[in-house]
Amino acid sequence: MPLSMTSMTGKMVIKPQFDWAAPFSEGLAGVQIGDDRTGKRGFIDKQGKMVINPQYDQVSSFSAGLAMVRVGDYPTGKSGFVDKQGKMVINLQFGWAGEFRDGLAEVRIGDDRTGKWGYVDRQGKMVINPQYDSVTSFSDGLAAVQVGDYPTRSRGVVEKCNLCEERLARGLRPACVDACAGRAIIFGDLDDPASDLRRALADRYAVRRKPELGTRPQIYYLI
Fold first, then answer.
1. Dihedral through CA 166, CA 159, CA 58, CA 27, nearest 10?
2. Engineered SS bond to 92: which of 16, 80, 154, 196, CB 3.0-4.6 Å?
3. CA–CA dist 120, 100 (Å, integer)
4. Where along the chain do its domains lie?
5. Tens of pLDDT along 178-198?
6. pLDDT, tens digit, for every residue of 74-100?
């Protein structure tokens, strides 16, 4: 179903035409043309004009004037950063990358299994060398980092998602939240009315799977 953009009054500002769209950030929004298998992503302005042509397999929102872009699939692709004119400011070279916060962005050198995380500045200089197994974005001058592997899983055993409780115990977010460059997964405290999660639930219609069973599911799907 094609996606569009409306104003706060419900007026259709940008007509339905995109197969995926992210929220606006710093005046631009990521959009996708085509299906999830072959489609490409670029950026539009608030008038719906394509400012950066669809050419990437993954993009993040703009932050501090830069956005992460990725070419290739998750296991083998490379990530870099572009400015609002579409210029490649930091070349495609990282196994994965996050968004800039407090002037730094987390980047991974190597693959998801053996790679290490560090931080680069807006010029692409490695400020904190890759040495961590998991990291978060900086906030108020600090970032959580992890050294060491996750607990060993038995081959062939299916486990229920526990929201990465071993990461939560270290003050980290679930791995899926950090890995999602499109920020499509929100994690937070339902008891905190000021949390991003509570604000999202207040702004959007949400459903839960089979609440009538009495299991009190805490995963909400935004519609």
1. -60
2. 80
3. 9
4. 186-223
5. 777 677 888 888 888 888 888
6. 778 999 999 999 999 999 999 999 999
